[in-house]
Specification:
245 residues, mainly beta, two-stranded antiparallel sheet, 1 helix
Length: 245
Amino acid sequence: MNKSAITLCALLACNATSADTILGIDATAGVWLPGYTGDIGSDHYDLDNLSLSEDNITTFQAALEHPIPLVPNVLLAHSKIDTDGAAHLESAVTFNDEAFEVGSEVNTDLNLSHTDATFYYEVLDNWVNLDLGLTARKYNGEFTAVSETQSETVDLTGYLPMAYAMARFDLPFTGWSLIAQGNGTTFRGDTHTDLTAKVRWNFVPVLDLAFEAGYRVMSLDLKELDDLQSDIEIKGPYIGLNLHL
């Protein structure tokens, strides 16, 4: 085999190896079934008293990866977290500026929906994958409490800067992967972590379509982001579908 043929074979092999890294889209849609613990408001009202509904939460994320040097990849994600509850107040409770009277029957709605824009780099990209970056998380939520004679809405809006990391371990020749993904921050008195551990099975290799299941834990200790003060932990199982193009 002459040198030209050897060179051509090497180029073809290199192109085949890197074809999916020229421009890649990775999208995931999932359902999260969490429970809620902690307290809310300046009086640290126990969330257990509200018997918050453990409804399914929809989550979406999509990443765009490219080979342009020094330009980060982009990941967009959204979680729609909205739950309601009710309580009979055995003592007076203040939410924001409204003091609810003893004996009131209070209906509540807690919305912690948020959208992430993450800019990250692929530090490792083989059977061990490691992404590192920064996230801007935008909250667009609120807490509402309503009784027969009173009502109050406490806003939770604003941005939190967060560190981002994702590690994926591909088990060779099996279609299975182990994934840990998370964000975290301590910023101006607010502490927030959001961690997911999951397994992924590529059950349609031709389409690069995978099923994944795991567990997600999100904690919010918020004092300065907006009017809503909270120390909440939200955790539960998660399932989803992933498509890589």
